[in-house]
Here is the input.
Amino acid sequence: MEDDRQILVDDVDDTTDLPDVSVEVKTTKNQTCLNIVYLSSIVAAIGGVLFGYDVGVISGAKVQVAHEMDLSCGEEEALVSLMPLGALSASLVAGPLLNRIGRKSSIQLTALAFTVGALIMAFAGNLPTILCGRFVVGFGVSLSAMSECLYISEISKPSNRGMLVSLNELGITLGFLLAYLVNYILLDTDHGWRVMFGLSAGLSLVQLVCMHFLPRTPHFLIMNKQEDEAADVLRRIHKTGSIKQEMANIRHSIDTSMASSCSQLFTGEDNLRWRTFIGLGLVVFLQLTGQPNILYYATDIFQAVGFCGATLAAMATVGLGLVKVGATIISLTLVDKVGRRTLLLLGSTLMMVSLFTLTIFGGYQYSVAGYHQRETCSHGPNQTHHHKNAFSHAEHVRQDVGDLCESDDLPLGLRYLAFLSLVTYVAAFSFSFGPVTWIILTEIFPVALKGNAMSLGQAVNWTSNVFVSVTFLDAVRIFTLPAVFSVYLFFSVLSIIFIYVCVPETKGKSLELISKELKGIRTPLTKQMSEKTQHRKENTEFSLVENSV
Here is the structure.
C-alpha cells in the first residue's frame, strides 16, 4: 500500500503550489481540527433529526387533522403517503444535484425545504395545502439522507468515519423520539397539529445558518478543480499527514471515474455492477424485512400487553423511541470497532428471531384465540375517529379497546413475549440496517459516482417503502397477519445469507482503499467467467499442441 501511495504522490503536478504538511501538528491544532470535523458532522446530522421528526410526527398530527377537516380514509392515507412521494421525486434528481452544487449546498437546500414545508403545513387552511407541505418536506427528507451521509463521510477519517456517519441515524432516532414526545404533549390540544408541523421550522433554520460557516468537502472541491480551497479544507480538518498525498489519493480516485453517469453503475467496469448489487441489495432488504409496518403495529401490541387507551399507547411509543435512540448509540460506538458486516449479521439475526416470535404470536391469535386483523376508519360530523386494534376479535369488531385489553383470551406470558420481540426487532434494526446500510453506500462507490449511487439507492428505498406500506393492509386482509409476518421472516433469512456472502468489511479503510479493493475483487460471477475463460484457453492451447504434433 505504501508503494501505491508513493506512486500517487509522484503523479502530482510539481507546479501545483501546495505545501506538503507531513509533520505532526501541535496538540492544540489537532484538537481544533478534530472539533471542526465533529462540529460539521453534528450540524449536518441535524437533518437526520428533521428527517425522523417529520416522519414520526404524522402519527399524532393526522388524527387531529382528520377530526378538524373531517377527512375520509382515502384523504387520510394521502396525508401519510404524500411525503414518501416527495422523497421519491427527490431521489430522481439528487445525483446530478449533489455533483453540481455539492454536498454542503445540498444540505442547505434540504434545510430550506424543511423550513418552507413546515410553515406551509402550520398555516394551512385546507387539505391540499397540507399535502403540498408534506410533499415539500418529503423532498427534503430524501435529499437530506443522501447529502448528509456523503458530506460526513468525505470530511472524516477512516478511523472514525463509521461513527460520524452514524450520527445522522442517531439524529433520525432522536427526531422520532422528539416527535413522539410532541404527539404526547399536544394530544388533547386544540389545533395542536399546527404546532406539531411547525416546530421543525426552527431547527431547520438553525441548520441552514450554521452550514454557511462550515467547509465544503475536499472531494467535491477537487472534482470541480478547486484545489486551492480543497488544500485549505484538508489543513483544517486533518490532524496529521501530507496534504499533497491526501489530494493525490482523492484525485486518483476521481480520475478513474470522472465521466460518470447512472448507467455506469450497471457496467462491469471497475466491478461497478457488483458494487451496485451490494448497495441495492441492502436497501431492498432494509424494507422487505417489514420495518415500516412492524412499527405501524407497535401501538396494537402495546395495547395487547396492557397499555390501554390513546394516552398510555402514546407513552409507550415514547419508550420505543428511547429504545431506538439507545440502540443507535450502541451502533455509533461499535461500528468502527466490531465492523459494519458484523453489526449487520448480528442485527439481521435478531430481527429474524423477533419476526419468528411475532409470527407465532399472530398465528396463535388467529387460530386459537380467534383474533383477526380488522382495520376501520370513519370520520363524520357526529362520529368519533376510531382506529381499531389490529388484533381485535373477529366476532367483536365493535368492542372497545378497553375490553380488548381486559380480555383473558391471550396468555399473559405470550403477550409480553410479543412485546419483547417488538422491542428487540426495533433495537436490532436501529443498530444494524438503519445506520450501517447508508454507511456502506457512502463507502463502496467511486467519488464521482457516489451522487448517482446514493440517488439510485434512495429511489429504490422509497419505492420499496411505498410498495411494502401500500400493500400491507390488503395483504393482511387476504392472507392474515401471521402469513405477512412469515413473509418478512423469509426475507430476513435471505438478508442474512446475502450479507454473509456478498457484503465486504470496510472498517478502518480509506475510501480510496475500499474502492481499489472492490475494483479488483473476484465475485462469484467473475470467478465463474474467469474459470470458463481459463478452461477455454487451456483447451485451445492443448489443441494447438496436438495439431502441431
The CA atoms of residues 115 and 201 lie 4 Å apart. The mean pLDDT is 77. The chain is about 75% helix and 0% strand.
